[in-house]
Structures are given as structure tokens and as C-alpha cells.
Amino acid sequence: MKHALTLLLGALLLGAVVPSAMAKVTATEAAHLGQDLTPVGAEKAGNKEGTIPAWTPAQQKGTPTEFASNPQIEAEKPLFTITKANMAQYAEKLDAGHKKLLQTYDTYKMNVYPSHRIETFPDAVLKATVANATTAELQGTDTISNARLGLPFPIPKSGAEAIWNHRLKWRGESVTRYNNQMIVQPSGSTQLTKIVEDVKFFYASLTNPVTANGHALAIKYASQTVSPPRVAGTYILVHEYVDSRDAWLYSPGLKRIRRAPTVCCDNPYEGTDGMQFYDQVDMFNGTLERYNWKLMGKKEMYVPYDSYKVASRATKYADMARPRHLNQDLARYELHRVWVVDATLRQGTNHTFKRRLMYIDEDGWTILGVEDYDSRDQLYQYQEGHNIFATNLLTNGNVPEVIYHFDSGRYFLTGMFNEDKPLDFTRNFNDEYFTAEAVQKRTTK
After folding, report:
1. Is 90 exceeded by the pLDDT of residue 99?
2. How far from 64 is each of 57, 103, 394, 419, CA to CA, in Å?
3. Beta-strand (E) ranges in 285-434?
4. pLDDT digits (tens, 9 = 90+) for 33-65
5. Which of 121, 155, 260, 415 has its CA 20 to 30 A from that of 223?
6. Mean local confidence (pLDDT), 12-26
7. Contact at 8 Å (CB) between 360 and 341?
């Protein structure tokens, strides 16, 4: 615990990311990994109150094509419920997004359950993460060197390093994902968009990992919009490098695929009616260069966690949608330690969000909440990631993600596959599949 407090105090003193390379972790610091810290840098011990347990990693089980449920956790009952009436009692452990939802909507509540810490990664990823601790470096915000397979910065020295752990974590070799999205109006009426995504991972690959040294390939991504008819047949192709992105867009109206530099930052994602920016996918993705990233240390907070009920095949999309907010009878919250990262817009750059405050799980390195502030420093949007741990793959992810738009009372759900097939991690794409020519051919089938 003394080591963890030292890290916290050090993090609080860190300012914005500077152009020079961040210093590597010393061998003495790295020796804590696997001892009082887990291999990915979380505190092994629980908290002194016993409300956060010690880390007890799960064993891998299940097949790569089944939904990773957890009946034991799903059967638990809430310990208590946070409402508008009693939120002051829990305010210290609530972020500004949850506070605003509770204050704004009388029907909003947070059911808090026992906390679990079973998240882990494959052994090879854990070992590579420990090795990265003393070799990986970050130049500025977007140039990583000497990192391979594992999380690059298990003991982060800056906010940008913490974000890179989220972006480069192990998610499987390749996957076909049924990503359904829903816009929910204040009345509760919905508009559903169905998307099929194919992804191949290159950096975090057990079979053939790519070392992050400057312009290293991270993922290749291709998506097809299936419905509704007005956007059906739209394709997006992305080659994501550690330091940059190449993107293409196929529009059914133009009937050709073309380069799309606008697949970036605060440009609206195709077919979302402006409800999601490209860099809000996966809570945050893409270039970090528009912001200064400050690591604020760790904090105990109530966050969406073990969200198997909302992601369940038994839960239908109609079950999720309620006026102005997600059906909170489906949502599950637990007390966890999270890294807090404060991103402020860099002078000379532009973005709809002047500031973004992010909350990252210490065990799985997934962003669970993002407060998005406008140019007036008002909370404009709130992103919430309902996290589950997949024992069949030994990774975690948010299904679904929610973006609350406080100005309109609408909200946006993404990453839903409840009424489709589970994610399929058995796919084996060749590189030709992710070329502009191959996507163009697929549009004629």
C-alpha cells in the first residue's frame, strides 16, 4: 500500500505530457509487478474497509463463440441503491456524470452490488506487460517505442500512458462483432442501426505480435452498415497505426470507396445522427495530440461493472430503452479503484470538447466513464461503459456503451449484440480482406 500511495502522490504532481520521452520505469519500481501489484499494475490488496476485495484472477473457460456469462454474479442482489434523495451520502465516490443524471432525472438510480476483481489477461500478455515496464517509452502523446504484446505502461507516469494501456490491451486475435446502435429520444422511442464489424489485431496478438516502434500497425478494421435502409451499404475501412490512421469510406450514393481523413476526432460517426464522434468509439480512440493529458492518481468510485444482465441474450433492445436514460434495473455498479485522467484541449488545436475527464479501471485498463465538457466548461455529454469480463478470452469490454446528451435529453447506445450472435473470435482474416479493393468488391455482392 505504501508503494501505491507513492505512485498516487507522484501522479498528482505530473502535469501535461511534454514533447520529450517519458522516463522508463526503474527496475526497482517494476519489481512490484507480480508482488504487491498485479502484473498489469493494479493493487493486489483490497481496501482497508473491505468494500473492494483483493485481486483473484479468473481461470479461462468457455469457447470463443459463446457469450461469457457469469451466473453466480448475475444472481446477486444489490447492497443498496443510490437515488436523487440519498446521493449526497455517496457523493465522494460518484463522478460528475452520475451526479448530473441523478440530479436531473427522478427515475435515475444506481443499484450497487458486491465488488469482484477477477479480471486478467493471458499469461503471455501478463509477462509481456511486466517486460514492457522497463523498456517502453512514449514520445509526446502518440509515438511509442519498445513495447510488445502487453500493456505498454503498467505503472503509468502520465495520463497519455494510461490511455495507451486502454487502447492497446489484449482483445483477441481477430473478431466479427455485431455492433448494434440505438438512438433513444426523450419520449423513449428508438431508432436502431445494425452494423457488422470485422477486426484483426496486430500489436496485441499472441501468434504474431507487432512491436510498437513509431509507425507500428495496431489493428485493421472493416465495418458494414446493414440497416436502416437510408444508411445500409455504408462501409468503413481503417488501418490503425500507433501514431496515425488511414481510413476509407464507401458511400452507397457514390458507389465507390474513397479516402476519408474525416474518420477522426470530433467528426460525427456515419449513421449516428451526430450522437457519437469518431473518437468516442470504445470510449476514446485515435490521436491524442489535441489534448494535454494529466494523470490525477487513483480514486475509489462506483462504476458500471460485471454488467452481464444488461449484455445478456435474454435482455432485448426494447428492455434497455427508457425515456432519457438506460433502464437502470438492468445496470450494475460496483466500488472499484480507477485511474483518473484529465485531458484539456491543447492551445492551437480544436475540438467540440474543451476538457475530458476519464475514469479507467485499474484491473482491466478499460475506460468506464468520460465527462465531456464544452467551451463554457459545462458538462455537455457523459459516456458510460458497462463492463463485462469474458472468461472465454481473458479480456474485458463495454457492452453497451452509453452517451448521454444533456442538451437534448437524448442518449445513444452502442456495442449491443443481445439479439444477434455473440462475438466470434474464431475468424482468421488474411490481410487482403482489409484493402480498399476488397471492400469495393464486397459492395457488389
Report:
1. yes
2. 19, 41, 10, 18
3. 291-304, 321-322, 325-326, 333-345, 355-361, 367-373, 379-390, 395-405, 411-416
4. 999 999 999 999 999 999 999 999 999 998 888
5. 121
6. 54
7. yes
